[in-house]
Amino acid sequence: MKRSKNLLRKGAALAAMSTVLVSQAPLINAFAYGEADVSQSTFKQDTDNSADFQNWLSNVWQGGEKAYAQTENVALTPGSDAADLNFSWYSAGKGTPAVKVWKDGSKSSAKVVTGNAEAISAENWQGKSYSAANKVNIADYFEENTQYHYQYTDNYTGDDSIWSAEYDYTTKATDKFSVILTGDPQVGASGSSSDKSANDASVARDAYNWNKTMQQALKTCPDASFLLSAGDQINQSGATKDDDKKTRESEYAGYLYPSVFRSLPIAATIGNHDMAGSDYSAHFNNPNSEDKLGSTAAGTDFYFNYGDVLFISLNSNNRNQEEHRTFMNKAVASNPDAKWKVVIFHSDIYGSGQPHADTDAATNRIVFAPLMDEFNIDICLTGHDHTFSRSYQILDGNVVDYDISSGSVTNPDGTLYITTGSGSKYYNLLNYTPYYIAERTNACLPSFSTIDFSSGSLTIKTYDYNGNKYADDFTINKTNTDMSVDEVINNAEALINGTEVNYTEASMNSLKDALSALKKIKAAYTTDKDPMLADIVNNYGKDTDRVSGYGSVKNAADKSTSESGNSVNRFKKGVSTLLDKTIYIQAQEGAQAQLADYKSENAPKIDAKALEDAKTAVVNAINALTVQEDNNTVTEPSAPADNTSTNSSS
User: Fold this and answer.
1) What single-letter DSSP state applies at residue 482?
2) CA-to-CA distance for 460 and 217, rounded, in angstroms?
3) Residue 11 above 60 pLDDT?
4) How far apart are alpha carbons 393 and 379 in whole angstroms?
5) Rounded to whole angstroms, what are the CA distances from 491 to 25, 222, 323, 494, 649?
6) Eight-class DSSP state of 428
């Protein structure tokens, strides 16, 4: 008898797991590490009054090595996988760029790889001009847990080439590794009266704190494999005027200043402050971006694999959902057996910061949230909010109400959303706690997170730039029996619709009944087709676009109205079914209505135990299918398959 490889025998494991799932009201006052009023923050003044900052400003930034003028610093970027590494840097002249790399102690056998020089015309406020952005990709070379050294040159001419200083790059393991996560360093955002000048105080202040943040991040996580940045590397959003372009390059000098970046690759997604300038794609050499999907002036979507983890960076400035879907299909196909799928983009579609979370970011929720569900993304990393938050597991706008009191969850459905803190400016939290938020804080200090990956778990930890805890740790555990609702449904439907094996009517009817019950639960929490999605996608970039900027509502007639009669920068109730569900069930009009009228039992919520029980019933029915050999003979199910060899995915 030939049995489908989709007959996943995990009923017992699912049943055991479901016993730890409880129904709980998701709305809580989620201030684990405190709420701050940003108007009372003294962070900017504290930096300016620091003797260490003033010494660095005089002797390093503006004097000595004149770091403030070095827009040309080399940036490393992850390649397509752990054996690859990409390089990018500016130069005054245009030649043949090259990188020389060798294992520790083996310089005599160094490998030289040439690349391409892209013609640019760039200048910073310190008067340095650049005519080339140099790109070199080294593929299929790097081994795990090995120390390398490298040098680079703007113009490779053989033995007489002039090389840079030597730098170190040490690879890490791929089966168990850590990364650093930051958001919105936004160098230049802290503001000063000397903006757009060689001695721009805001760029200096932010570069100093960004460097301090990265130094602490490497102290906290010394074995980090690379940095994930959720966007807004710089602050100057415009890129049309010459003064704006010069400001952006001076800010990039601040962003790329930390010496840790000579040995730590940067995977930087495109923020709304980055998107207008081609300087982003000149400074970063991102992998798998050749299809130009999800593009704006700055660049495109990109992805890479590191061991069993697939990392997908989406340009959330582009609202063409179909382009992102095409790109994500390609990314997933590059590593179909990935244990973890991680998406990073800038817009805080499930955040908690006052300026964005329930206004312009909600517009992007319409576009990007369905993709997270469709591709069964484990964790979605975002910025833009300038506050830290962690969601519950979210599936189609619903909180899946797992018991997370232990700081962990096992084999969950839905996506965990993280909104990073900031590095240069800070926002107040919303004056109510969105139902989907498990934890949030805005301590008005630069912060970073670390994410530890292994085959069985993913743990996120968050710190401020002094190394103090900034948020609670949280872990997602996975076993070999992990399957999503959609995977269970798809497996069952494949068997019901298949013709390869003839099952007994009784066993097939049992499967059909179990599947019907599971699909009924799914239908109850599934959002109706959103009419606003097609509107946003089809009119993107046209005069008929009802959205402007980074999710703002263009027309007053489309905007929600507060109790006081003021317009609110989000689409009014009745325009989007997803927003009606994820905003207007909780937030009608105005903070008072939100606080007075909202009750946790009204929140979009999925009973996790009922869901897991229904999934278990389907899997048990699959495992109990009985093969009808002929009219008189019935073959009982074979012994359960080894769970370790199942076709599971995240």
Assistant:
1) -
2) 13
3) no
4) 9
5) 32, 43, 28, 5, 13
6) P
Residue 281's nearest CA partner among 311, 261, 302 is 302
What is the full DSSP assignment across 320-345?
-HHHHHHHHHHHHHHSTT-SEEEEE-
Q: Is residue 465 a contact partner of residue 445, using CB atoms and an 8 Å limit?
A: yes
**Residue type at position 601:** E
Rg (CA), the chain: 26
Q: Could you tell me the CA-to-CA distances from 149 to 141, 168, 273, 291 in Å, in that order? A: 13, 4, 34, 32
For 135-145, the pLDDT digits (tens) are 999 999 999 99
Q: Which of 99, 215, 229 is nearest to 167 (CA)?
A: 99
Cα-flanking dihedrals φ and ψ of residue 434, to 5°?
Answer: -55, 145
Q: What is the mean pLDDT of the chain?
A: 90
391: Cα separation from own chain's centroid = 13
DSSP category for residue 408 = E
Residue 90 DSSP SS3? strand
Of the candidates 228, 220, 274, the residue with the CA atom closest to the CA atom of residue 473 = 220
User: Helix, strand, coil % (nearest 5) of the chain?
Assistant: 30, 25, 45
User: Would you state the structure tokens that stand for residue 612, as one six-digit string?
Assistant: 């897991």
Which tens digit of pLDDT belongs to each residue from 16-71?
443 333 344 444 445 567 788 999 999 999 999 999 999 999 999 999 889 999 99
| CA 252 – CA 500 distance, rounded (Å) | 60
Give whole-number Cα distances, 454 to 29, 407, 409, in Å: 32, 17, 15
Return the sign of the alpha-carbon dihedral for residues 378, 415, 348, 471: negative
User: Cα(470)–Cα(388) distance, rounded to whole angstroms?
Assistant: 9
- Angle between helices 11-18 and 608-623 in degrees, nearest 10: 160
- DSSP code at position 297: S
DSSP state of 601: G
Which tokens belong to 94? 């245009």
pLDDT tens, residue by residue, 143-163: 999 999 999 999 999 999 999
Q: Could you tell me if 378 and 415 are in contact, meaning their C-beta atoms sit under 8 angstroms apart?
A: yes
Rounded Cα distance between 133 and 131, Å, is: 7
In angstroms, the CA 259 to CA 233 distance is 16
What DSSP line would sit under 526-582, residue for residue? PPPP-HHHHHHHHTTTSTT-SEETTTEE--GGGEEE-TTS-EEEEEPTTS-HHHIII
Provide the CB-side half-sphere exposure for 108 (13 A, CA): 1
Query: Tens digit of pLDDT for each residue in 527-559?
Result: 999 999 999 999 998 999 999 989 999 999 999
**Distances from the Cα of 94 to the Cα of 77, 157, 542, angstroms:** 21, 13, 38
**Across 112-137, average pLDDT:** 98
Using DSSP, state whether 163 is helix, strand or coil.
Answer: coil
Element (H, E) at 202: helix 201-220
Phi, psi of 268, deg, nearest 5: -105, 120
Residues present in the chain in total: 650
Q: What are the residues facing 118 on neighbouring strands?
A: 133
Strand, helix or coil for residue 286: coil
CA nearest neighbour of 319 among 291, 287, 346: 346
What's the CA gap between 154 and 132, in Å, rounded?
9
